[in-house]
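Worked problem 6 (solution included).
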Amino acid sequence: MKNNVILLDLIFYLALPLFVWHVLRDHVGDYYAMLLTSVPGIIYTLYRFKQTKKLNVTGTFILATLIIGTVIDLLSGSALRLLWNNVFYSLAMGVFFIGTMLFKRPLALYFALDVAELQGHDRKFSKHLFYHNPLLLIFQGITLILALRSGLFAGLNSWLILEYGVEAFDKGILLKQVLGWVITGVTVIGFFYVSKVIQDSPELIKKVQADLAES
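Solution. The predicted structure is:
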C-alpha cells in the first residue's frame, strides 16, 4: 500500500468524490450528493489509520478533523451552507495552528516526533532536541505554512462560492487536493532540513544528552 499512496489518494480523495458528485446530484440533490462524496475519503482514511495501529498525535489529529468535518457537514442542512461552513472550518483550523505556535507547541513539531518515533528514535530525547533552536523556529515556520494553507483555502473557496455558487463544490475538491499536495511537499522539505540541521549540529545532540542526564 505504501508504494501506491499517491494513486490511492487520487482515487479516494479526488476521483471518487468527483464521480459521486456528478453522478448522484441529479438523483439525490446537491446537499446529499455532497455528503455522499465524503464517504470514500472517510473509509479510506479510517483504513489508513487502522494500518498504523497506533494512536499518536498525527493519528489523533487526522481522526479529530475527520469527525469534526463530518459533523459539520451533517449539521449544515443545505448545499450552500455546507460550502460556507467548510470555509469557516478552514479559518478555524488556521487559527488553531497559529494558537499552537503562540503557546510554543507547534503542531508540526509533534508530527515530526511521531515520524521520529516510527523510525526508532527515542521520543523523549527527540522532544528535548526539537525544542532547542534553531529546530523550534523551523517547526514554528512549518506550522505557519500549515496555517497559511488553511487561510488560503478559505479565501479561494470563498471566491469560488461567490462566483459559482453550489457549482464551486467540485472545484473546491480539486483545490483542496492541490493545496494539500503542495503543502505536504513543503512540509517534507522542512522535515528534511531539520534532519540536516541535526546532522550538522553534534554539539546540540551532546547538550540534550547532558540535559537529560542531569534531569
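Discussion: The chain is about 85% helix and 0% strand.
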